[in-house]
Amino acid sequence: MTVVCLGYRAGFVEAARRRNLDLHFVVDKLKPGLSGLSCTRVTDLADGEEVLRAVTEYPGGDISAVVTGHEHPMFAATVLRSVFGLPGDTDPARCLRFRDKRIQKRAVSPAVPTAGCVYLKPSEPDYAALAKCLGATFVVKPADGFGSQATEAVHSQAELDDYLRRHPFVSDVRTVAESFVEGREIHVDGVWWEGRLVWAAVSSYLDPLMGWTRGKAVADAPLGPAESELADRATRFASDVLLQLAAPDTVFHLEAFVRPDGELVLGEVGARPAGALTPEVLRMTHGVDLYGAAIDVALGRAPEVPGRADEPADLFGWIYLVRSPNRDLTEDSFRDRFELVELDYPAPENGREGVYGRCGHAIVKAATHKELMHELRAIADFNRSA
């Protein structure tokens, strides 16, 4: 049985191997982990036509399922399921509810707090008009974006004009402007099966993701028992959102903000596993394999997820490392200063810069969420010190 995987994620390789499944990757970037694996390269994974041509060529009709751990191939995955009669969602309109931020926020009821969201037409870049309906500070980003790419807060006409100069576009539905939501940024990751939540965990980011363009660290860790009330509320909130969006069977990643008064506000939700190293640290913390669950769901099988268990003995968190201004900083520098579960910080001549400015990563553990976030903050500061 061959499973087509749109975009490379190492976790799918291991999950497929444990299930005795063959994988064929369709990718737009060649990564070292693809060495020795079956793959086809395309220009754009968001282009359903190109992806369909690639899969029609190979492996053709000999496929059992399609999975992805990325946001932009979601529509192409829907096309493949429809054409090849594969299990899973084949409704393109529903797929858009999990891709387009404007469509998604219009699809939920007023009972779900969301940021105000409108399309930004390049022919009408009127800051005053947008501020009147969204507030003096609003956020501009691609309507179907991912990874906080081209996501920036705007406070004036000059800043809006500068954004449009650096990120030009012509489509009236390419970019959205959203009201700015003040609050802590959390996310819920889990498995939705037969109309209900069968497993979920709540985590929080060290800093708002949008701040990475201003030098903030990108890091993340699960909540601990001390915040069980917030975790319970966030889990119920995620369930309500997924019901209102008529979610298909899926592994999902939902982002939300916790306002200073405690209210939860929907950021966005995707019908795919979380990015970065979140699935890896959730497996270390809770024993869940979200990659495996995604494959199970794609095959139409009941997903393998842990039952209710005691609180984990340790929490694990991850941080993306950037290239330090101190060129003498090495892996040994980090290991001498911190107790690390995992570390990747290649020498400058061997490294490359990825999403969020990433050139490496670290994984750490602690007994509590507070201790874990303190350690991640210390690593971030050390990473950025000259």
UniProtKB/TrEMBL annotation:
Organism: Streptomyces chrestomyceticus
Residue ranges of the TM segments: none
Designated name of the protein: ATP-grasp domain-containing protein
Superkingdom to which the source organism belongs: Bacteria
PROSITE patterns noted in UniProt: ATP_GRASP
Domain (ATP-grasp) ranges: 104-299
Keyword Phosphoprotein: no
InterPro entries hit by this protein: ATP-dep_AA_Ligase, ATP-grasp
UniProt keyword annotations, A-Z: ATP-binding, Ligase, Nucleotide-binding
